[in-house]
C-alpha cells in the first residue's frame, strides 16, 4: 500500500479540487508521491476535456486591471456552472490569465492564448486548470483601452457571484474632475449597455439598416410624404441615443448627455469597452 496520510489526501484535494476517490487512486498510482499524484489527476482531467468540448460555457466572470492609471485591460472568462464560476480556484485562474495579458501587454484573445506561461502556451495552462475544475473553461474576450486616465468598474448582478459586468472608460485628461466623471460614466455604461463610443464607430450598414426600418415603419404608419425625411432622421437619432455612449442621456442626470458631463469636467472620452458575461 502506498505511503500517504489523511493529511496528504486533504492537501491534494485542496490543491486540485478533485474528489476523494480520485485523490486516493492518484496517490496509490503514484506510490504516495504528491507531485506525481497531481500530475496523474491533471492527465485524467485533460483526457476528459475532449468530452467537455461540446458543452456550453455560459457562466463565468469579468475582471479588469488598470496600469499606471492610463492602460486598462478587461477580461471575460467562462465556465459551465455558477458553482465553479464563484469558486476560489476559478477566480484565481481568471486573475492569472489577466496578469499574463497585463504583464505581456496583450490586447487580443488569440495572442493571449499563445502567450508563454511557465514554458507552455496559456491555452494549455487553462486546459490543465480546467481539468482540475472538472468543467469546460473558455477565455472568451479581452480588450485594452488607453488614455490620459482610465477607469475600471466591475458590477455584481448577484451577491454570491463574482462580477458579471465590466467597463473600461478612457478620457483625455487626468484631473480630479476628469477622474470622477470617467468613473461616473463607467457606472453609467454598466447600467445602460451602450454598444459604441461615438456615432462614427457605428458600422455604416447598421445605420443604413436602421434608416430602412425607420422609413418602412413610417410608411406603414401612413406618415405624410413631406414629413418622411424628418421622421426618419429623428428615429435614426433615437437609435444613436440608445446605443452610442456619448449620446446617451446621463443616468444620474438625464437632462445632460454623457458627452456634456465629460465636457463639464474638462475632458472627453477616448475609449470604452463593456463586457457582460455571456452577452
From TrEMBL:
Pfam families: EF_TS (PF00889). HAMAP family: EF_Ts. It comes from Nesterenkonia aerolata. One of its GO terms (molecular function) is translation elongation factor activity. Its main location: cytoplasm. PROSITE patterns: EF_TS_1, EF_TS_2. This is Elongation factor Ts. The gene is tsf. Associates with the EF-Tu.GDP complex and induces the exchange of GDP to GTP. It remains bound to the aminoacyl-tRNA.EF-Tu.GTP complex up to the GTP hydrolysis stage on the ribosome. Residues 81-84 are annotated as: Involved in Mg(2+) ion dislocation from EF-Tu. Keywords: Cytoplasm, Elongation factor, Protein biosynthesis. The lineage of its organism: Bacteria, Bacillati, Actinomycetota, Actinomycetes, Micrococcales. It is found in: Cytoplasm. It comes from the Bacteria.
Amino acid at each position: 500500500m502506498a505511503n500517504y496520510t489523511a493529511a496528504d489526501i486533504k492537501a491534494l484535494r485542496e490543491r486540485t479540487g478533485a474528489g476523494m476517490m480520485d485523490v486516493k487512486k492518484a496517490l496509490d498510482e503514484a506510490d504516495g508521491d504528491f507531485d506525481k499524484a497531481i500530475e496523474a489527476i491533471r492527465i485524467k482531467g485533460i483526457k476528459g476535456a475532449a468530452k467537455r468540448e461540446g458543452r456550453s460555457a455560459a457562466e463565468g466572470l469579468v475582471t479588469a486591471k488598470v496600469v499606471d492609471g492610463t492602460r486598462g485591460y478587461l477580461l471575460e472568462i467562462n465556465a459551465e456552472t455558477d458553482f465553479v464560476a464563484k469558486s476560489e480556484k476559478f477566480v484565481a485562474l481568471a486573475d492569472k490569465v489577466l496578469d499574463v495579458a497585463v504583464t505581456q501587454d496583450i490586447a487580443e484573445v488569440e495572442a493571449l492564448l499563445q502567450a508563454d506561461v511557465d514554458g507552455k502556451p496559456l491555452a494549455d495552462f487553462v486546459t490543465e486548470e480546467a481539468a482540475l475544475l472538472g468543467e469546460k473553461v473558455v477565455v472568451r474576450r479581452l480588450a485594452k483601452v488607453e488614455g490620459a486616465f482610465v477607469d475600471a468598474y466591475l458590477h455584481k448582478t448577484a451577491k454570491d457571484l463574482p462580477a458579471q459586468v465590466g467597463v473600461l472608460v478612457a478620457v483625455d485628461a487626468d484631473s480630479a474632475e476628469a477622474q470622477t466623471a470617467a468613473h461616473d460614466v463607467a457606472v453609467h455604461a454598466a447600467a445602460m449597455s451602450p454598444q459604441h463610443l461615438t456615432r462614427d464607430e457605428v458600422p455604416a450598414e447598421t445605420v443604413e439598416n436602421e434608416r430602412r426600418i425607420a422609413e418602412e415603419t413610417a410608411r406603414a404608419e401612413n406618415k405624410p410624404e413631406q414629413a418622411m425625411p424628418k421622421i426618419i432622421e429623428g428615429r435614426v437619432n433615437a437609435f444613436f441615443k440608445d446605443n452610442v455612449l456619448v449620446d446617451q442621456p446621463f443616468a444620474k442626470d438625464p437632462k445632460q448627455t454623457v458627452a456634456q458631463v465629460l465636457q463639464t469636467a474638462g475632458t472627453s472620452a477616448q475609449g470604452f469597452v463593456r463586457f457582460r458575461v455571456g452577452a
